[in-house]
Amino acid sequence: MDFGFSEEQELLRQSAREFLESECPVSYARKMMDDERGYSPEVWEKMAELGWLGLIFPEEFGGSGLTMIDLAVVLEEMGRVVLPGPYFPTVLFGGMTLLLGGSEEQKKRFLPEICSGRHKATLAWLEENGRWDAEGIQMSAAHDGTHYVLDGTKLFVHDAHNADWMVVPVRTRQDSQDSGITLLLVESSSPGLTCRVMKTMDQTRKLCEVRFDQVRVPNGNVIGPVDQGWRLLDRVIDRAKVGLCAEMCGGMDRVLQMSVDYAKVREQFGRPIGSFQAIQHKCANMLVQVESSKSATYYAAWAVTHDVPEAHLAACMAKAYCSDAYRIVSGEGIQIHGGIGFTWEHDMHLYFKRAKGSEVTFGDATWNRELVAQEILDKPDFLETAI
After folding, report:
1. CA distance 121 to 186
2. Which of 1, 90, 280, 308 is the 20 to 30 Å CA partner of 107?
3. Is the dihedral angle over the CA atoms 312, 313, 314, 318 positive or is it negative?
């Protein structure tokens, strides 16, 4: 059984690494932390020219027609440099929602704009209750016949201040939890919509508060069936979880590399600290976490690519494992570096902060394990049909 990457995927990885190390080293992430936009338009244009924004979208819309596995390869490299900016929400939130559930008219209108880099998008989901399930979506959307009228607040919205439009899940029916959710495509320039960048621990990723005050959205901007948007949103988030796990794998890999390199040259008591068993075991445990995370992530990428019945389970397993693993690996990296690992000048704290931010996005490890438990308990023959 061959678990290796294809020649094309290895070339994609190599070209992505060369571009990101040249154009977006960690110093770029530091610079963007102080930039109001959080990204460079020049770098964005170069990424569009490379075809990265259309990587997973069909060729008929200006994309490359590749798979989630190929996208995971690129996202892993982005995680190695803690890349800031609206790439993730544009491709995996806005674009993916339209790809999986948009009408042909919506796809023809918006996907070419994403693939070309002319439009940026995001997903405004989380509310004050902090819940990642359907019941957490409580923002009202009254229907007056021709428009949906939105009132409420969405929090921790990725790069909303850069987005041209956003996918907004709203409650259009109150008599159930899963049904009653409708996905709306809302233009950021809509009257009554305001956006504010929030203060968060991980400033390499800009998160926003978005307020809706009588925002009117035409009927034609409904994505998928009315009142039946949760199933579509769930599929989108499965793919976003896989993409986030790929990012986390890249970050873990880079932390491990930095830690091993440091352990080889940092001396204590007249010998490299890497010669001490305590440090050796930390590095060994970190490697186990990294490789296990990659295995879970790329299986999940394969599962969602082929839309197999276990795709949701695989995405939740990967997110549960990677959430813990990235936090542990980045924490051990700081321990190996000692006092210097806590300083602002060293890059290790950027990875730890990214790990903490990624840990809770789409639910932490505990939440995703609960989803895994629900999946396996709902399937009596799970052990016979599992991987």
Report:
1. 10
2. 308
3. positive
pLDDT along the chain (387 residues), means of 10: 84 96 94 93 96 96 96 98 96 96 96 96 95 92 93 96 97 79 96 95 92 96 94 96 98 97 90 91 96 97 94 96 97 93 90 96 95 83 55
For residue 313, report the phi and psi dihedrals to the nearest 5 degrees. -60, -45
Amino acid identity at 341? G
The Cα–Cα gap between 382 and 53 comes to 37
**Could you give the 3-state DSSP secondary structure of residue 210?**
strand
Joined together, the tokens standing for residue 210 give: 């978005």
Beta pairing, strands 193-197 & 207-218: antiparallel
Q: What is the DSSP letter of 144?
A: -
3-state secondary structure of 224: coil
Distance spanning both ends of the chain, measured CA to CA: 14
CB neighbours of residue 206 within 10 Å: 26
Per the CB < 8 A criterion, the answer to whether 71 and 51 are in contact is no
Backbone angles phi, psi at 130, to 5 degrees: 70, 15
| C-beta of residue 74 within 8 angstroms of C-beta of residue 148 | no
